[in-house]
Design brief:
homodimer, alpha/beta, Chitobiase, domain 2, TIM Barrel, Alpha-d-glucuronidase, C-terminal Domain, 3 domains, eight-stranded parallel barrel, 16 strands, disordered N terminus
């Protein structure tokens, strides 16, 4: 409490003023502050005298508004957009190839092929062109140009071409109709369903704008654990109102489809996808949606998983279910995203193997407008997982990535854990399915198997807290997701530089922020689940450690199912001597993990059951290394606390305090994780925690008795 | 939808800029904009050259910060506070009577008695004094002075003395531990229990500041449908962190006490208030709280009501229960607020009579530090109710008022309904218990029965929407509650002028806002429950009309229980020929409503069962008058829509749109109320709606079939 009071005292000394005028994080990475360096600002002002928008559509209009607003603010001079080209230089000329002036400039500049939604930015004859094939490209180009200006870079010799590598760059909101969010840790849903469609919260547009600025072009606004009310006319009107707000930002709206809706809402006796009446119901319902939302994107479906209804109830396959919906949306250009995150009803020997077993036999059986949406790893968004075996295993099917941006298993609303490094690790992992270099990114972007339809989904971390994401640095995860969905080959480092540069003004703060984003994921893995441990969180809400969780309605929801600790060893044997989950991967991939002694330590206990006294490559025994790893994780967090506190006065006080308070929580909780997990595993290893390391403050029972019935992100229990 | 699209189009034209820079309502009535009139501003600047704060406590420090901030902003010149008096004129001198300079000035000025928390503001020798007995008085005086400056009034001859008429001026938050709010319509709880005590949302301080600015000095942050977790050590730490934030703003924290906590948390077998172990448990628990929160205010209790546990389970009385808790907090100066909103377990003939029957026999049996908290009317926060019969009926017991600020029954998050007029109607109602002039306000302020302990509670309308209250005008209800808790004799008109003046800059907008606040309550009564109708809302969530509600687990939760419509008549006979609820009032009060023909039409159907064809004083039959009244309510709302739309451009666009969109919803819903209720009552009156009035768009079944399972403000049903 002493530390807290100190923080509060500091707080009180400034909030009287800053609470109204300070930066509360709402502006995200779109702060557009005046460029402080006068030389640079003046130079820009001389290079940007006017702004010409040659297109008239609503998306081009958004690009014009954004450029005008951003440039006016950064250059501290009014930059208004005009429609006519006129003569002279010092212009930003924005237009699609439908305009002769643009085509001529492209030809003269020898710009390469600008594809759908892509753009080129180039300097020519003392003007700067933002050129695209369609208006969405103009919008993305506008945001790119604004980033460039913000960075202070030279804009006299610009020449770049950017085409998105993925088609569907989409957020998944697990937002319920009562505004609770499943696995939401930043307050409640920004979508006020009750007051829609008649009350339009300004936040809806700010949300669309933020997404557009990082290339996100789609969103699913309802939970995958879906509600049939989605299809009631009054709710469809609500969605239409949102779609109207999103459209000028180039964002398509999608909905989740509860498979049993024809029964619950339609009054049918079945939801069998091969039943003509069921098909007819979906066809009609789809028409009703498109009548309201002409550019409706399509459906996202979770079926036959965790209690959700699905085609298997009628002895049909996932393909049968997906194809029925795909046929309904196909006439309108819609698509279906069918999730591969499935549980069989019977408890499996190894849950990691289920999705592969159910989906690989269906390869080639899906309609062309179906994407199979696969989580990055085979379990469930753990701090670290090996790649999902489905990547590369369904060459005849478009497979899209599902990342979790919300930190269900990674510190939730308070921990600073940069996820971009984790995304990068997955995207750059090699499946070896077509030999070395068969990266997951190549599966996702369609290049490996020549797929046209591609996509990446991110489970949103957005709520109605003022700064959108609770932890300020979680904004970087949203940002990174958007950038990687645009280009899955992008380096995290580049993303961090962009985000830190846009979010903070001071160079030292930027540098520290990048350091945190580079390292914090690894530290989190270490203080939660080092050496390949996984799924040892507390039950249900997944807040805090729970390696002792053993009594749940199914074994594969418990922790002991996953770590399999006993007096001799710990870890899940997924090698040939165990469940042989490795057989689902390519031989080259599997070979890396076939034996414990050759397995990268970060996946050791994921693939192997390893004796506590096994000597590892580090020279320590497994037990010793586990103790060290947990402690390294805590040390990493402590270093962030120290490093951040050095920045006081170099960042606005409100955001400084936000981050400082959350880092303190993270440090306390990292110790909690370490002490609780080691106290527990010690009962199996029957060895002391090495004396040079910090010892737990409490006994095991203390940790086991802690309970948090109102942890956020779960459906409330009444 | 056409109208909506029009609004959206307007919206898009400005939000790109205003979404960041516009007024979103977060600043409430504390906007402190620069005074535009240069003459006035310059004059003030010449009169306010410096600011002297003679006290050093944390509350005085808050007053200093607030004055410095507000004056600097309004006068557009830095006004910093200093501690030393110095010489010369043009000073604002702020201090308590402990300072000789203050006492001398008070004597010279012949200021009257400044009581606890009161203040005097006066001009003397070309300085302005803000003088008080304690630091809270300084803070309230500071806010008063800032209001005066904001209004542009002459400050050269100030001479005023303000003492609060009530001691406990308190908000009641019905906020649950999962951040849902029972009867909350402005988002979710601002209190992020999960991240407390370590993460301090800046909003907590802004909340305290807003309350202090209108004289509120206390708050209960947990729901009266209480949770025993309140008393778990980790939760007590969370409350302590909030109390630390609130204290410098003169706000005491209170908690709700779940009566069965000794069983649920303490492991006892009983919660019998006469059991020594139970008493011991509460005593110890209370000590634990005061250890953390030395100025803890005490407990608010809902017992033996709507399923909540209470002393009657052990055949003890409300007094037994209250006294046990009162004894626990008495050594620390704490109090207990015991709610009189009770249901007996048996279904009563008339629910309106229950509280009186249970509490009057207990008069004189409560400890001195117990307040009995009584809702304004005998049913439950209806759009209009006669006063509660308990006012004036317990002369030996301090009785405090409970108003609802959140609009459970008055349009919830979207309708513009100024509640101040309703509060005023109640406070100025005459109980006649000690002859004419025995106003409810006199019961409440203790003057009628010579009570020392006095208070007023308001069930908060605050949530985490950015503008705090969803509907912008609902801020005025929070404001009015604070002002009336300070002075229950205050005229609504004065309150409206203050609020409108602080909230809007343009005189025409202010005038229109006052017009709305003056009339909207009456309009709401007319379009929802005219002529004394009551409790005919939809079940559970109370959103929209539900006069047909007839099947609930108890009859007194249904609508038909209250309106008693049949083919001959409608209304609840509470006269001597009926339940004789009138006998609970003084004879003079009762006489006003004894016969239907003399009863004020606004309470006609509250007290009488009146034939549809009865001719009223208006010359119309009851049925005709009902039809007219419903329509007048709609017309009132339509006039607001028209009047507000004239103000476009005269108020910032963001707040203009907020209000415009909500008014449109209100107009649609007022029609819904009218058409649904008249369609229903028509089946009893068996008469047509007069032809000159608008006819319902749909048949009765349509209205009855409407359902809104996710209406906000109720516990979610899973």
């Amino acid at each position: 409490m002493i530390r807290l009071k100190f923080i509060i005292a500091l707080w009180l000394s400034f909030t009287a003023i800053s609470s109204v005028t300070g930066e509360d994080g709402y502006a995200l990475w779109l702060r557009y502050h005046k460029i402080e360096n006068k030389t640079i600002r003046k130079k820009y002002a001389s290079q940007i005298k006017s702004l010409v928008i040659l297109n008239k559509g609503e998306v081009a209009n958004t690009a014009a508004k954004e450029l005008s607003k951003g440039l006016s603010s950064m250059l501290d001079t009014k930059v208004e957009s005009q429609m006519s080209l006129g003569k002279g230089s010092g212009k930003i000329i924005v237009g699609t190839v439908e305009n002769a002036a643009i085509t001529q400039a492209i030809n003269k500049n020898k710009t390469g092929e600008i594809k759908n939604e892509g753009y080129a930015i180039f300097s020519l004859d003392k003007n700067i062109y933002i050129a695209a094939t369609d208006e969405k490209g103009l919008l993305y180009g506008a945001f790119h140009f604004l980033r460039t200006v913000h960075s202070g870079a030279d804009i006299s010799k610009l020449n770049l071409l950017e085409n998105p590598k993925l088609k569907v760059r989409i957020l998944n909101h697990w937002d319920n109709m009562d505004r609770t969010i499943e696995r939401g840790y930043a307050g409640f849903s920004i979508f006020n369903w009750h007051q829609l469609p008649d009350y339009i919260d300004p936040r809806y547009e700010d949300y669309a704008r933020a997404n557009a600025s990082i290339g996100i072009n789609a969103t699913v606004v309802t939970n995958v654990n879906a509600n049939y009310l989605v299809f009631r006319p009054d709710y469809m009107d609500k969605f239409a109102a949102l779609a109207d707000i999103f459209r000028p930002y180039g964002i398509k709206l999608y909905l989740t489809a509860r498979f049993s809706s024809p029964i619950e809402l339609g009054g049918l006796k079945t939801a069998d996808p091969l039943d003509p009446a069921v098909q007819q119901w979906w066809n009609e319902k789809t028409k009703e949606i498109y009548k309201r939302i002409p550019d409706f994107g399509g459906f996202l479906v979770k079926a036959n998983s965790e209690g959700q209804p699905g085609p298997q109830e009628y002895n049909r396959t996932h393909a049968d279910g997906a194809n029925m919906l795909a046929d309904a949306v196909a006439p309108f250009g819609g698509i279906v995203m069918w999730r591969a995150f499935v549980y069989s009803n019977e408890e499996p020997v190894d849950r990691a193997k289920q999705a592969y077993n159910e989906f690989v036999p269906l390869d080639g059986k899906f309609r062309k407008n179906v994407l199979v949406q696969v989580k990055n790893g085979p379990i469930d968004f753990q701090p670290r997982e090996p790649i999902h075996p489905l990547f590369g295993a369904m060459p005849k099917t478009p497979v899209m990535m599902e990342f979790q941006i919300t930190k269900e298993y990674l510190g939730q609303g308070t921990h600073l854990v940069g996820l971009s490094k984790m995304y990068e690790e997955v995207l750059k992992a090699d499946t070896y399915v077509k030999g070395k270099g068969s990266l997951v990114a190549k599966v996702i972007d369609g290049s490996l198997d020549n797929q046209e339809l591609t996509g990446m989904a991110g489970v949103a971390n957005i709520g109605n807290e003022r700064n959108w994401t609770s932890n300020l640095f979680a904004q970087a995860d949203w940002y990174a997701f958007g950038r990687l969905a645009w280009d899955p080959y992008m380096e995290s480092k580049t993303i961090f530089q962009e985000w830190a540069g846009l979010t903070f003004d001071n160079a030292e703060v930027q540098k520290t922020a990048i350091l945190f984003l580079e390292n914090s994921h690894e530290w989190c893995v270490k203080y939660m689940t080092p050496l390949g441990l996984h799924h040892i969180m507390a039950a249900n809400h997944h807040y805090g450690p729970g390696p002792w969780v053993s009594r749940m309605s199914r074994a594969d929801w418990t922790s002991v199912y996953y770590h399999k600790a006993d007096s001799v060893a710990v870890g899940f044997d997924r090698s040939v001597t165990g469940t042989n989950a490795l057989e689902q991967y390519s031989p080259e991939f599997a070979a890396q993990y076939a034996s414990a002694d050759k397995t990268d330590l970060k996946f050791l206990l994921w693939f192997h059951h390893v004796p506590w006294n096994q000597k590892l490559s580090t020279g320590k025994t497994l037990w010793e290394e586990m103790c060290e790893e947990y402690n390294r994780g805590v040390q990493g967090v402590s270093s962030m606390v120290t490093d951040w506190n050095k920045l006081k006065g170099k960042v606005d006080e409100e955001r400084f305090q936000q981050v400082a308070m959350h880092l303190k929580i993270q440090e306390d909780e990292a110790k909690w994780w370490r002490d609780a997990c080691l106290s527990y595993f010690k009962t199996f290893s029957r060895q002391a925690i090495p004396a040079h390391l910090p010892q737990p403050e409490h006994d095991l029972k203390y940790y086991q008795d802690l309970n948090y019935p109102y942890s956020p992100g779960i459906r409330p229990r009444w």
